[in-house]
Design brief:
There is one protein chain. By secondary structure, the protein is of the alpha/beta class. Helices cover 30% and strands 17% of the residues. It contains eight helices and nine strands. Strands 2-1-6-5-7 form a five-stranded parallel beta sheet, with helices on both faces. It has a two-stranded antiparallel ribbon with strand order 3-4. A two-stranded antiparallel ribbon has the order 8-9. A hairpin with a 2-residue loop joins strand 8 and strand 9. The longest helix is centred in the C-terminal third of the chain and has 19 residues. The structure holds S-adenosyl-L-homocysteine.
């Protein structure tokens, strides 16, 4: 299988050195599962100063990225038939785990990073999708781009040691993950729940289902509110109902349900 290509158009390619120091991502780079191709926007700038930005028409604060350098950079990238161009902008759709899952079936993602006050409106025509990392404003699109590269890479086959660990995670289904413990059994008088060392796998599974539901209701009930039959979900029901219940409620959302 060929590498998954990330092509990033950025004024700050050095920022992406961080990716090479992130464990799982470093391994994916070493194993050629991914390639991160950085396209320095400055090299596509105008004139002898390699100008990439200019004052906004109509006045106002700050500088706006010009369209021509970004278009030239985008045109210079060889595109595969399974490629998508994403524009980083706080005005975009907020990134979700299911986007990363969907994009992991592509083999190339081109990411355009804005800077300063943003980019000329005409840059939007290059984008298949406009993506925001969240409802806050950063100084540039580099951190959002790295988040996408990081989150998507760990979904690629061969990246994580244990692919099972992907299934249980928060946001793979509308439930948050159950609490996790490792050794020591007692730490600062806080004890690991006895059930986890009981060796009773059926009971452990039920406990995890129950905790997942409790946790989601406590912290993020917005994740399950809209789901049929789930508004009245309570821990008693979790104990009574079988795994099938979860399967039938959640499966259509993400294609699989947690492997408790
Ligand atoms: N004036 C712009 C914000 C510019 S921030 C506006 O109000 O929409 C500068 C650049 O940082 C943006 O062009 C974008 O590429 C990036 N950026 C900032 N916040 C972001 C976010 N939440 N998600 C994705 N990209 C973001």
């Amino acid at each position: 299988m060929g590498s998954f290509n990330f092509d990033v158009i950025t004024l700050f390619p050095k920022a992406f050195e961080l990716l090479d120091n992130l464990g799982v991502i470093t391994r994916a780079l070493e194993k050629n599962l991914i390639r991160v191709n950085l396209h320095n926007l400055r090299e596509f700038g105008e004139g002898s100063y390699k100008q990439v930005d200019d004052k906004p028409y109509g006045g106002g604060a700050g500088m706006v990225l010009k369209p021509e350098p970004i278009y030239r950079a985008h045109e210079s990238i060889i595109k595969s038939s399974k490629s998508k161009t994403l524009l980083m902008t706080p005005q975009g759709r907020v990134l979700k785990q299911k986007d990363l899952l969907e994009w992991s079936n592509l083999d190339q993602i081109i990411i355009i990073c804005g800077q300063y006050e943003g980019f000329d409106e005409r840059v939007r025509h290059l984008a298949d999708e406009e993506i925001s990392l969240g409802d806050y404003v950063l100084s540039g699109g580099e951190i959002p781009a790295m988040s996408i590269i990081n989150g998507l890479t760990r979904l690629l086959p061969g990246t994580l040691g244990d692919p099972e660990s992907l299934l249980n995670e928060s946001h793979n289904c509308p439930l948050l993950e159950y609490p996790q413990y490792t050794r020591p059994f007692v730490f600062k008088e806080m004890k690991v729940p006895d059930i986890l060392v009981s060796g009773n796998h059926k009971e452990i599974k039920l406990w995890r289902m129950q905790k997942s539901v409790e946790r989601t209701l406590e912290r993020r009930d917005d994740l399950i509110k809209s789901k049929k039959n789930l508004t009245s979900l309570n821990t008693q029901r979790v104990k009574q109902e079988s795994e099938e219940f979860f399967k039938s409620n959640f499966e259509d959302d993400y294609g699989f349900y947690p492997n408790w």
